[in-house]
Amino acid sequence: MKDEFGRADYIKITIYGFALAALWSSLHSIVLPLRLLDLVPEAEKNARLGWLTFVGLLLAMLVQPVAGAISDRSGFRWGRRRPYILIGSLVGILLLPGISLAHSYIVLFIIYCLLQMSTNTAQGPYQAFIPDLVPQDRKGLASGVKSLLEIIGGIAVVRLIGYFMGNYAPGAGAHWLWLVLAVLAAVLLSALLATIIMVKEPPGRAATAPLSVWKVLARSFSLDIKADRDFIIFIISRLLIFMALATIQTFALFYLKDVIGLANPAMATADLLIAAGVGMLLAVYPAGRLSDRIGRRPVVISAGLLGAAGILVIFWASSYSTVIAGGAIIGTATGAFMSSNWALATDLVPGDEGARYLGLTNMATAGGAALARLIGPAIDYFNRYGASLGYQVMLGACFAYFLVGSLLLLWLKERR
User: Fold this and answer.
1) What is the three-state SS of the chain?
2) From CA 131, how far away is CA 337, in angstroms rounded?
3) Rounded Cα gap, residues 194 and 82, in angstroms
C-alpha cells in the first residue's frame, strides 16, 4: 500500500481516531463529571473524578502496548490490526449503557475501567496504520491528518453532548443521558465499519516462535536505556504535556462552575472545548507540514511554550470570555503539538515494532492523563483553605508541566 498511497487513504487509516476522540472528549469533560454528581458528595467530586479516571487510564497504559505488541506478531489473513479493532470496539459499544445503568460509584468505576480496556485493545493496533502503510516522506502529513480528525472528533459532537447533558437530571431527565450514549455508540460503530471495510492491510505474518503470555508482557514494556535514550526523553516530555492538557480538560467543568460561577457549566464546557478545537484546527495541518520541512523538535517545543502562555491567561482570567481566549491559545498549542509530536514518534520507532513502540508512546498519553487526575484530591484539599485556592494550584501545576515538557526536548537528537 505504501507505493499506492492516495489522498483518500489518509482519511481511511485515521477515521477511527475521530470516533475515539469524540467518545473520550465527551465522557471525560461532560458526561462523567455530571454523572458523578448523582453518586458522590459535592465536596468530594474532584477527588472521586480523579481516582475514577486515574485507575481507568492506568489500565489503558497497560492494555494498549500489550495489544499492539500482540498484533505485531499476528498472522490474520485480513491484516494484523483490524481484528483487534473489531473486537475492542464491539465490546466497548456493549459497555456504554452501563454508564447510565450504574447506581453506585463502584459500579460506574468498574464499567469505566472495562470500557478503557476494550477501547485500548482496539487503539493500540490502530495506531500502527501510519508506520505500516504510509511512505516515509509523508508520515508527517499523515500524522497531521490523524491529529486533525481527532480534533474534529473531539469537538464535532461535544456541543450536542453539552446541550443534552445540560438538560440532564436523574429520573425525569435520564433519557438525555441515554440519548448521549446512543450518539457515542453510533459514532464508534460507524468509524469501526469504515475502518474494517476501507483499510486494506496486507495479510499478517504470524511470528515463527510464539511467545508465552509472560514473555509478551515483558517484551511489550521493555526498553534499552542506552539504545532508546531519545525515545525515553520523548516519552517523558509527551507525558508531561499530556498531564497539562488532561488536567484542564478533566476539571474544566468544575472550574467553570466553582470559580467563574456559571449556571450551566455543561454548555460552557462544550463552548470552551469548541474554542480550543478551533485553535487546534487552525494549527494542526500547518504544523504537520512545517515539521516535515524544518524538523519535528522546534515545532513541538514552540507548541509547549505556547500552551504555558495559555495557562497564564486562564490563571489571571476574571471573566468567561478571557477563559475562552486562554482555551483557544491552548488549543492552538495542542494542534501544533499533536501533529508534530506524533510525527516525531513515528520517526523514532523501529519499523518492525511499530505498534509496540507507538503503544508505549500512547502509554505516555494515557499515563499523563492518569497522573493528571491525581491533582483532584489536592484541588478539594486546598479549596477548604481558601476560595478557589485548589484551582490556582491546579493551574500552576499545568504551567510547570508545559514548561518542563517542552524544554526536555532540547536534549533529544532528532532523526530526519
Assistant:
1) CHHHCCHHHHHHCCHHHHHHHHHHHHHHHHHHHHHHCCCCCHHHHHHHHHHHHHHHHHHHHHHHHHHHHHHHCCCCCCCCCHHHHHHHHHHHHHHCCHHHHCCCHHHHHHHHHHHHHHHHHHHHHHCCHHHHHCCHHHHHHHHHHHHHHHHHHHHHCHHHHHHHHHCCCCCCCHHHHHHHHHHHHHHHHHHHHHHHHHCCCCCCCCCCCCCCHHHHHHHHHCCCCCCCHHHHHHHHHHHHHHHHHHHHHHHHHHHHHHHHCCCCHHHHHHHHHHHHHHHHHHHHHHHHHHHHHHCHHHHHHHHHHHHHHHHHHHHCCCCHHHHHHHHHHHHHHHHHHHHHHHHHHHHHCCHHHHHHHHHHHHHHHHHHHHHHHCHHHHHHHHHCCCCCHHHHHHHHHHHHHHHHHHHHHHHCCCCC
2) 19
3) 11
Cell (9 digits) for 288: 504537520
Is residue 205 in some structural domain?
no
170-191 per-position pLDDT tens digit:
666 788 999 999 999 999 999 9
Instruction: Give residue-wise pLDDT tens across range 146-171.
Output: 878 888 888 888 888 888 888 887 66
Model pTM score: 0.72
Cα 2 from chain centroid (whole Å): 27
Q: What is the mean pLDDT of residues 305-325?
A: 91
CA angle (261, 151, 257) in 5-degree steps: 10
Contacts for 255 with CB less than 8 Å, ≥ 6 apart: 391, 394
**How many CB atoms are located within 10 Å of the residue 277 CB?**
25
In a domain, 219, yes or no: no
Count how many residues are written for the chain. Answer: 416
Q: Closest Cα partner for 189 from 119, 142, 117?
A: 119
On whether residue 213 sits in a domain, the answer given is: no
Confidence band of 1 (pLDDT split at 50, 70, 90) = very low
Query: Can you say how many angstroms the Cα of residue 13 is from the centroid of all Cα atoms in its chain?
Result: 17
CATH number at residue 303: 1.20.1250.20
Q: How many domains does the chain have?
A: 1
Instruction: Give me the domain span that covers residue 43.
Output: 9-198+227-411
In a domain, 4, yes or no: no
Give the angle subtended at the CA of 179 by the CAs of 174 and 180, to the nearest 5°.
100
Cβ atoms of 29 and 17 within 8 Å: the answer is: no
- Burial of 282 per CB tally in 10 Å (0-12, 13-18, 19+): middle
